[in-house]
Design goal:
about 500 residues; mainly beta; Thrombin, subunit H; Collagenase (Catalytic Domain); Immunoglobulin-like; 3 domains; 6-stranded mixed β-sheet; about 35% strand; disordered N terminus
């Protein structure tokens, strides 16, 4: 199975969670006229124009799940003149809205795709078409047209776009296009940009909307009617714990609560911005709320059938729902896809790639933020304390000063030299700017003033407060001193040194 994309966080003013998943009979109907496909509805032409247009969709297009959370089909219910018309498809069905009263229902099979345009206000079929291609609804609609992507029946390879007239079903155009992002599983529509290799790793890009308050506790619940099955709940909660514990920053703490303020939905009805290839997506509105949507096991998508590893127990050809949850909560914290900034990162550097691997590919079961994710989270939220290491994915300048408790003294007296190490003041470093750096390895170098001899060196004692380090010496003559911070091999901090300080010694 090929890798999959993961969705960008959507910044919206409101979140409409996916439609409730329907398994049993729908309440409230006076009668059920049909439990069948759209072919059971009468043709609109045969009804003439005397039929009252008082129909309504009483239950929207929704996935039907079995007790294990596997998609078994899709269902829609129309109500017209006091009678409910329940339309069902198998697991390869789909729907598209068209205008104020049109609803396209499609179902794929081995022989191609059947399309039925439904007049929802009259509960009848406007037209029916049978095509010998595998068609999938395209979210980026053309005004007044139906846009469907074409895929090879066997390989699922993307072959182009089919454009239909919604009034008649007549084809308007078939657009042949190269296979780009649509060829692989996705959790959102990515712009097929010509990405540049990453070269040296760099921090994961972030959304312009910025960060939540530091250390904010973000509770979540299962969306009503879209509760994950029992096998999915533990890894989804574990993914939330991973997002809380692996950031190495004061980023949000994600906590499950039955009365949580935000919702995670296991649903076949993802918001339109998620894209047709989506297996999951996230949305947030700062600083109020967020949501995550997870597609059910067995969902038929253009790239293939979605298989969650935690459901199958398989070691290949499936996707880790715990990793996907971590990725989506990365979006909630403020992380974007590296591809959004025109570069790529390895699976060891980030879990925020637009394309996420299926098992057993590298990174497919990674359950911690990568070092480049951590680098950005530290900039957005600060480190937990001043001893915490700065991610090696970053390249942060430092500033170093040196002062003595006396600058003139008699021979035999002691002088204490104190160095102060900080992150350089730079708005680009955001929360890290000017932070004291405690507990690092600093050297004090010294030599007789005015000489050209090599510098001697001693290590300074960290005071673990305000980035201070000190050493006490008893110079026998006038000496000059400088503090040096060697570039560490385990942090993304730059080398720095202080100005030279001279201490005069008299007899």
């Amino acid at each position: 199975m090929r890798g999959l994309h993961h969705v960008r966080t959507r910044h919206v003013t409101s979140i409409m969670l996916g439609s409730a998943l329907l398994v049993g009979a729908l309440p409230g109907a006076s009668a059920v006229a049909a439990t069948d496909d759209a072919a059971a509805l009468p043709e609109c032409q045969s009804l003439g124009r005397t039929v009252a247009r008082d129909g309504e969709v009483v239950s929207p297009w929704s996935a039907v799940l079995d007790e294990d959370g596997v998609v078994t089909g899709y269902r829609l219910t129309l109500r017209h003149e006091g009678t409910d018309h329940r339309l069902e498809t198998g697991p390869r069905g789909f729907s598209m809205e068209s205008g104020a009263r049109g609803l396209l229902i499609g179902e794929r099979s081995a022989s191609g795709t059947r399309l039925d345009m439904i007049d929802t206000r009259r509960a009848c079929r406007s037209w029916t078409r049978q095509l010998k291609r595998q068609l999938y609804p395209q979210q980026d609609a053309i005004a007044g047209k139906l846009r469907l992507t074409i895929h090879d029946r066997d390989s699922r390879r993307y072959e182009g776009t089919h454009i239909l007239d919604p009034e008649s079903g007549a084809p308007q155009a078939t657009v042949d296009e190269p296979c780009l992002d649509a060829c692989v599983a996705s959790d959102g529509a990515l712009t097929p940009a010509a990405l540049q290799p990453a070269g040296a790793a760099r921090p994961t890009p972030n959304f312009a909307a910025g960060a939540w308050p530091k250390d904010k506790r973000l509770t979540f619940r299962w969306e009503g009617g879209a509760t994950p099955p029992s096998w999915a709940k533990p890894p989804l909660k574990s993914g939330a714990t991973d997002a809380s514990n692996s950031s190495v920053a004061r980023s949000p703490d994600f906590v499950y609560s039955a009365s949580g303020a935000n919702a995670v939905a296991y649903t076949g009805s993802l918001p339109g911005f998620c894209g047709i290839n989506a297996i999951a997506c996230a949305a947030r509105s700062m600083p109020s709320y967020w949501g995550v949507w997870i597609r059910p096991h067995g969902t038929d998508l253009p790239w293939g059938t979605l298989r969650w590893c935690q459901k199958t127990g398989a070691s290949s050809g499936c996707f880790d729902v715990r990793r996907v949850m971590l990725h989506e909560l990365g979006h909630v914290t403020g992380l974007n896809h590296p591809s959004a900034s025109g570069f790529t990162l390895s699976s060891g550097d980030s879990v925020m790639q637009g394309i996420t691997p299926a098992r057993p590919a590298a990174g497919a079961s990674r359950h911690t933020f990568g070092r480049c994710d951590v680098a950005t989270l530290q900039e957005l939220y600060d480190t937990p304390d001043n001893k915490t290491g700065i991610s090696t994915c970053n390249d942060v300048a430092t500033s170093l000063t040196l002062a003595a408790d006396r600058y003139s003294m008699r021979r035999g007296q002691a002088v204490t030299l104190t160095a102060t190490l900080k992150v350089a003041t730079n708005s680009a470093y955001r929360q890290l700017s000017a932070n004291p750096l405690n507990g690092r390895a600093l050297q004090l170098k010294y030599r007789r003033a005015g000489s050209n001899t090599a510098w001697k060196a001693t290590w300074m004692r960290p005071l673990y407060k305000q980035g201070r380090y000190e050493v006490t010496l008893r110079p026998g003559a006038t000496w000059e001193f400088k503090a040096v911070f060697p570039k560490p091999g385990n942090e993304g901090l730059r080398y720095s040194r202080s100005s030279v300080t001279k201490v005069r010694v008299t007899r």
